[in-house]
Amino acid sequence: MINISQLEKVYRTEEVETVALNKLTMDIKTGEFVAVMGPSGCGKSTLLNILGMLDDPDDGSFIFNGIEVAHFNERKRADLRKNNIGFVFQSFNLIDELTVFENVELPLIYTGVKTADRKKRVEEVLDKVQIMHRRNHYPQQLSGGQQQRVAVARAVVNHPKLILADEPTGNLDSSNGNEVMQLLTELNEQGTTIVMVTHSEHDARYSHRIIRMLDGQTVTENILI
Amino acid sequence: MFKNYFKIAVRNLLRHKAFSFVNILGLAVGMASCFLIFLYVSFETSYDNFNKKADRIYRIVSDIKTPSEVIHSGITIAPLAIYLKKDFPEVEDAVRLASDGFLVTKGDIKFQEKRTLLVDSTLLNVFDFPFVEGNKVTALTEPMSIILSQTASKKYFGNEDPLGKHVLLTGAAINATITGIMKDIPENSQIHADMLVSMSSAKQIYGQSTSDSEWTNHNFLTYLLLKPNANAKRLEEKLPAFMQKYHGQQMRELQMYETLFLEPLRDVYLKSTHTEVFPATILTTGNINNVYIFSIIGIFILLIACINFINLTTARSAERAKEVGIRKMAGALRFQLTKQFISESIIITLIAFIIAVVLSVLALPWFNQLAGKTISTGIFSNSLQIAELFLLSILIGIFAGFYPSLFLSSFKPVSVLKGRFSTSTKGLMLRKGLVVFQFVISIALITGTIIVYTQMNYMRNKDLGFNKEQEIIINTNFDKNKDAFRQSLSSISGVLSSVYSSSVPGGDYTSAYSEMQNAKGETQKTNLNLYFINYDYINQYQLKLTAGRSFSKDFATDSTQAMIINESAAKMLGYTSAQQAVGRNFSQWGRQGKIIGVLKDFNYKSLQQQIEPLTMRIEPGAFGLISIKVAANNLPSTIKAIENKWNTIVPNRPFEYNFLDDAFNQQYNAENNFGNLFLNFAVLAIFISCLGLLGLSSYSTIQRTKEIGVRKVLGASVSSIVNLLSADFLKLVLIAFVIATPLAWFAMNKWLQDFAYRTHISWWMFALAAIASLLIAFATISFQAIKAAIANPVKSLRTE
Ligand SMILES: Nc1ncnc2c1ncn2[C@@H]1O[C@H](COP(=O)(O)OP(=O)(O)OP(=O)(O)O)[C@@H](O)[C@H]1O
Ligand SMILES: [Mg+2]
Q: What is the ipTM of this complex?
């Protein structure tokens, strides 16, 4: 599904130049569950943003489902993104002014799904993450674990082929964290490819493969299954 | 999708109530001011539009060139209407109007009617005065026929049907018949009259018919109705030849060359330059400059309100940034977000629109009063206008939302979703620039107001060169008992003196074709303003002689062969000193004689106008006015005594009087209204600017809560923190002042050019505006700053 080679990303500020990704190469196959680990600042989030097409690389190649996307423009990337990729973040990133239902509904609105279909599909996923009874609440009225479950629901409502999760359990206690990990595992079992950044060895053990990064490069890979 | 936008917009508004309040209030007040100005401008530009044939109606005006001057006259001669219609096929119809005042009696009911017009029978074919009863075609053909306005009709006939009934006009031996009733002429008509008398009545009223072959007697307004498709320009080009044909010989003899022009009816009210016209009560004139000035002020106020919106929205971008990131991540394209934010701003402007409509409805009576006329009876009385305003507010929403939506939708999801998003510098320069712009406008308006009021004050208090205090003016309308009345006045203890004249300063006067001996000894032909006065006039008004002597009963010839002129007249005739003019010859309206004295110039017209040459002679037949000089104490009882005398000696006329100074200052009514409107809009502008400042300063204070906490813990005093928070904004106001000063100076200098006598713009006016705006801005900002500075620092630090 994903073939990356010689990928480079450099951040330039007035004083310093930070090489966030340094000639990084990796492949991820369809249906895989990959965990990315490494010390703070090694470029994990940068990688995830590029995979999610929220950001573009400075150099190198990024082939997504056989298409070279490294030089796609904003519009094309947005198109590809909304039909293929779901995101889960450490800080949930729900819109405070929208209810649970409305937050989950958002990706469907932008892909142009009809109102009746939307209702059905949102209820389906809310059911799956067991948050249906809170559908009319606002994010601030929920616990962290519940908020993250809503975020997961939003990430999968569009049936994406790929889910990118950046420290999804980082803000959660262990029992809430485990629930979220359970959810991701189920999704993976149903065929969704998952790339997850984490600092927790415990969470990493849910994955098939752990990629360890240092200074913008992959250093080792542990195959778990 | 729109439903989603709407939801977000409403929830955002409710969640940030204070911000929404400031934002919407600013917009609403700005829009309400703009609506009122819009109504004012539509009203001013709607004059005479009610005439269905307005496009084809032209007023004839003329430039009359004499060897001494050019007179721009709106008043024309009688034969024009007749011969233009005869000679030019493109003239469909023509109508003349002459103004006069009549004492009108019906049994015991009597009124001195001031707004009466003698009109040709063709009037209602040209103008669409709203006719309600009678035969429109024939109503004005027969002599002694009258059309009354409904108001006038009520006065004489109450609820009776007046058609076919009679009233008596002064001068006429027989009764006049009411042949028609019209609604009161709309306020946005250049012509106003309560009573229209058929022109053919002239013979019965004045003892002679209209001077249809008199080519020198300027007494009429003349309007032409051209045929459809007629070319007015082409007709105008043919008029010099026309004048030559009928009047060429006489023009050469008199050396008064008259050139005719056609003024489109719709331009007369606002744009006419031919200002020598009828009394303002009958022919109203407006000022296109005021329309421009208020349009600009309206746009400025709207800009200020839009800037508030832009500033407050972008200042809050940090809060909206997260939402932008999430939506983009969920698949939103930039244009979709732009659309969302513009929809949001339209929603906000529509809420503001509703409030603005309510505000304008509430303010309308007050606004009418300020404007001095009924601009509008209600916003809802005109559904087209409401629709226009509605569209306007949607446009405002798009305009105000445009930049913020581009700004907000440009955020990159990566930078936003990472967590903390700093916007402290993003768009800050622009916001500062816009605040400066707002205050440039506000300060310029404040300066403008100060200068307008200084000029008003100057006009009211300037020494006009004559005594205008304690002078009561009574118009006798040439009543046969006027002499007896005047003689009886001396028995009243409060009356110091009284004198006859045809004119008083600030009032109407005639102008006369005159042949004057000039400095070279030649006979100079000119048209001169003329006051007929009696012996004591110069004394009673304390006019100052600079050469020669005043009229005196010691010289028998003074009553017929003496003239007094003012310095301007002497100068116009080429005399380098007043003394040289004394003893020179004059010939005017059939009288010949010598100039016996020269008066120091006095302002007998409003201070907008230069003092023109003036001549004065004794002519008892022209004495209609009595000026009564009264003692300052016991004024009410003196007036009562004068009224009693009038009622016993002149029982058939109502007692009416006015004070000269009041009447003189009434010439400035339009300017006063202008000044008041200007003041109010300046206040509104600064109010809206301050709302924006309040919003921005409170926002930046919130952003700096932690900094303030740290500083306080480290020992900063309250005042140093207030200074810290205020200094930035006050700097902006100072920059605005520097920019506004030359702009205001330039604009107001231009405005003052309209006044022949004007105050000087001096530094204190700008200083006052600067201090006022600084104080207001400081009060606004420090409100927030003090609140932040006295808050407990522990609280603000703990939340971090
Ligand atoms: N917008 C930016 N401007 C400048 N430098 C940046 C920017 N974003 C990231 N960096 C730098 O790039 C490097 C990689 O950052 P990245 O966020 O990918 O790290 P990370 O592995 O996700 O760290 P963490 O585990 O702490 O989240 C870091 O050194 C960071 O300082
Ligand atoms: Mg990271």
A: 0.84
